[in-house]
Amino acid sequence: MFEMATGSGKTLVMAGLILECYKQGYQNFIFFVNSTSILEKTKLNFTDSVSSKYLFSENININDENTEIKSINNLNESHNNAINIYFSTIQGLFSLFTRAKENAITIEDLKDQKLVFLADEAHHLNTETKKKLNDSEASEKRNWESMVKLALEQNKDNLLLEFSATIPNEKSVEEKYKNLKVATYTLKEFSEDKFCKNIYSLSYENKELETCFLGACVSSLYKELLAQHHNIENFKPCILFKSERIEDSKANQEHFNAFLENLSPLDLENFFHYSRNAFFKDAKNFFDKQNHTPNLVALLQNKFKESVQINTNNEKELEKGMLLLNSLEDRDNPKRVIFSVDKLNEGWDVLNLFDIVRLKNKANQKDTIKDAQLIGRGARYYPFSYNDFKPSRIEFYQRKFDLSNPLSALERLDYHAIYDSEFITKLKEELRELGLGLIEKEKTTIPLTPTKRFKCYYASNTKDKNKLKELGSAFTKKVFNETIQRVRALNDEANKQQNKRHAPSNNGWVTIEKGVSFKAW
Asked: Where is the Helicase/UvrB N-terminal domain (predicted)?
């Protein structure tokens, strides 16, 4: 088992293992995964030498012999002196092995074959290992895990290499892989090593979808123009609009295009006027300073028009759409707005996703899990050349800027949603389990200036003084220490009035940090 975070090079490791296994005498490989979209994406990465994400060298030389990658439909098509890969969904593989078809692979075919099974998103293969199963998992138990086990046992030399970013957090599963883990590189480690974007939550009190539409477009355009201003090339921030159902996704796309067509300068003026978010204020200041404001409506309408959109729910366009979805970073790919439901939660190769918009007012537990998975996928860092940061340096692939630096906007993934405190709380918990943190809003520290009454009361009241000290742990050390120093400096004066106990005033609230207050007495 290779437990590796999304974006940490899992598929590249898989490609390297294919070459090593071939070197050790294995020629035939069966790659399987639960999703058709992941299957097609991986097939391109392994076999399409023209693709920008092709994982092998143009010429493959192993043991002083040239070889090539072949995609096969049957083991009987296996080529000598070639790496033969059969690609299938796990559902298709089960059907293949249990329902006889002409010219298809069968279990019988496996007995005389020395095979390497490559299981991607392998956490789906653990339903049999789990002790508690729901109805769908019980069905999978009879199907997936047992079928893979049966196929593996057909030849004693067969190998099973499993890959996953999210191994189920259950004792039975952990025990299963206890001595089988070859590599572990979690999303938490990936993030701590600065290979992830900073993740922000932007909540909107206005429940109209148009507000989310505009917020995401402003965010994306600001990041693009900011990059251009600093001579950073090929920086195209993409937006994902996520809906609950396919029909909702199609309707939301139509709604978005109608909104964009009717967008007016007054809409933008109102948006910036009523927004209290520092990020949007930074965007507005940048647009004004660089003289983009007069043309902002036209810019938004042009940058996010229908021709740059993809709807992943259109089955007729899915194959072509997947090619575009997995090459969004390419210079010649104009697509930057994606409408989807759940197709992209797993297996989507994208680095330049900078804004995710949840187009739903209410959410449940399943939504938080799915959205956390999607955020984890979009959190991967998008490397760009700036000053001395070039691809030859490891820093090129890591976050570079302090949060106070305006260019940190190019290193943030924004999650836009209608305000729902319960959902955001649950989402933070899910992201924390994945090893990621969610920044809800920038916090501003405000120095405490005690009133005259408070100075006197604090100096003479040991009980409440101790309470205040206990509360201090909730605030920044700097502010708390400064506060204590100020109060101590006033002790001499305050002690003179020890016997003058003042009653609290009606406005006896002391604010240390925006949104955090405590009663002075």
From this structure: 1-168
Q: What are the structural domains, with CATH classification, of the chain?
A: 2-185 (3.40.50.300), 192-434 (3.40.50.300), 452-519 (no CATH)
Distance (Å, rounded) from C-alpha 72 to C-alpha 87?
8
pLDDT for the residue numbered 134 = 57
pLDDT of residue 142 exceeding 60? no
Work out the number of other CB atoms within 10 angstroms of the CB of residue 133.
13
Q: How confident is the model at residue 363 (pLDDT cuts 50, 70, 90)?
A: low
d(Cα 485, Cα 225) in Å, to the nearest integer? Answer: 46
For residue range 93-123, list pLDDT tens digits in order.
887 777 766 666 677 778 888 999 999 987 7
Q: What is the pLDDT of residue 456?
A: 53
- CA-nearest of 278, 255, 280, 234 to 391 is 234
Distance between CA atoms of residues 470 and 341, nearest Å: 47
Contact 148, 98 (CB under 8 A): no
Q: Which residue has the tokens 């396919």?
A: 246
Three-state DSSP at 412 gives: strand
Grade residue 487 by pLDDT with cuts at 50, 70 and 90: very low
> 35 - beta bridge partners?
none
Beta strands in 218-301 (DSSP E): 238-242
The rounded distance, in Å, linking the Cα atoms of 289 and 295 is 13
- pLDDT tens for each residue of 443-485: 333 344 445 554 554 455 554 445 444 444 443 344 445 544 5
Going by the DSSP 8-state scheme, the letter that residue 389 receives in this structure is B
Q: Residues near 394 by Cβ (< 8 Å), separated by ≥ 6?
A: none
Residue type, 403: L
State pTM to two decimals: 0.73
* pLDDT tens sequence across 375-390: 887 889 999 988 888 8
For residues 251 and 192, what is the distance between their CA atoms, to the nearest angstrom? 39
Beta partners for residue 72, in sequence order: 86
Report d(CA 6, CA 304) in Å as an integer: 28
DSSP string, 431-453: HHHHT---B-S---B------HH
